[in-house]
């Protein structure tokens, strides 16, 4: 199995073409904001309020093939492999196919449950990125679903050894130039990694890389390591778009639910 050091280098090199394509795809002249300590900010500015809207079904970690390729996810990165190439364990591929065949009806997100990892960024109605410079933390706040939030520790700590698994896991971050690198472990299994239903176990280890090559686009890449569900590590990602004027609002997914029976599972 490849080491994460070599994988990080590979992802960085492969991602360069996508970053360059982002500059070609957008002519947004606004300067990329920075925090008081000089790092790239993923927030808006007093002049330009808004937040990030995930690609939803237009973004997946692996490219659909066959009949699923119709309506190809336009926000996927050039480095993405096909879902036929994802190194599933046999049981994980069977479960993946079952989830897709069921039209995602059993996804915990549809039951108003929190969703961790890359699935958080595919949640609709916008995501806020809050830089708490003095506290050395970054918060990800999701509007859709159950108002999910996630904390990234930026103070140099390590993962605790007696970690209790959660849907959001335990995340520690660092800066590599203008790229935020997040290392996360300690996940439960009661959420999906993406809309397509990639399975995982409690051995899941994610390394996410987020950069802002232009004011109005985020470049998101994640490397998945889970020897309980996959035979090797694999990498995928997508673009996330800025929406001017988009702000969190009072969204309660539990209200007016047309199928309350599913709220009791998971």
Structural class: alpha+beta
The major beta sheet can be summarized as:
9 strands, mixed
As a percent range, the share of strand residues is 15-25%
How many domains?
Answer: 1
Give, in order, the helices and strands. Answer: HEHEEEEEEEE
Alpha-carbon distance between the two ends: 32 Å
Radius of gyration: 18 Å
**Parts with pLDDT < 50 across at least 5 consecutive residues:** 1-24
User: What is the number of beta strands?
Assistant: 9
Q: Helical amount among residues, as a percent range?
A: 10-25%
Structural overview:
- The chain is an alpha+beta fold and 266 residues long.
- The protein has one domain.
- The chain is 13% helix and 24% strand.
- It contains two helices and nine strands; from the N terminus they run H-E-H-E-E-E-E-E-E-E-E.
- The protein has a nine-stranded mixed beta sheet with strand order 1-9-8-7-6-5-4-3-2, with helices on one face.
- A hairpin with a 6-residue loop joins strand 3 and strand 4 (149-153).
- Mean pLDDT is 85; it is low at 1-24.
């Amino acid at each position: 199995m490849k080491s994460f050091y070599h994988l990080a280098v590979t992802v960085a090199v492969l991602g360069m073409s996508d970053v360059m394509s982002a500059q070609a795809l957008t002519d947004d002249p606004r300067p990329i904001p920075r925090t008081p300590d000089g790092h790239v900010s993923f927030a808006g500015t007093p002049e330009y309020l808004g937040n990030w809207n995930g690609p939803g079904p237009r973004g997946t970690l692996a490219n659909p093939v066959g009949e699923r390729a119709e309506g190809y996810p336009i926000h996927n990165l050039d480095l993405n492999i096909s879902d036929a190439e994802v190194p599933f364990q046999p049981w994980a591929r069977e479960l993946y196919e079952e989830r897709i065949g069921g039209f995602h009806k059993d996804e915990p997100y549809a039951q108003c449950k929190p969703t961790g990892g890359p699935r958080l960024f595919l949640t609709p109605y916008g995501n806020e990125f809050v830089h708490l410079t003095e506290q050395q933390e970054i918060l990800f706040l999701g509007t859709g679903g159950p108002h999910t939030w996630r904390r990234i520790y930026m103070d140099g700590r390590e993962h605790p050894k007696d970690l209790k698994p959660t849907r959001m896991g335990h995340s520690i971050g660092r800066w590599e130039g203008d790229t935020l690198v997040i290392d996360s472990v300690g996940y439960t299994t009661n959420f999906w990694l993406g809309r397509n239903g990639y399975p995982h176990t409690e051995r899941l280890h994610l390394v996410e890389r987020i950069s802002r090559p232009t004011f109005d686009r985020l470049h998101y890449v994640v490397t998945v390591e889970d020897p309980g569900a996959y035979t090797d590590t694999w990498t995928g990602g997508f673009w996330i778009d800025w929406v001017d004027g988009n702000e969190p609002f009072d969204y309660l997914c539990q209200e007016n639910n047309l199928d309350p029976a599913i709220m009791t599972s998971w």
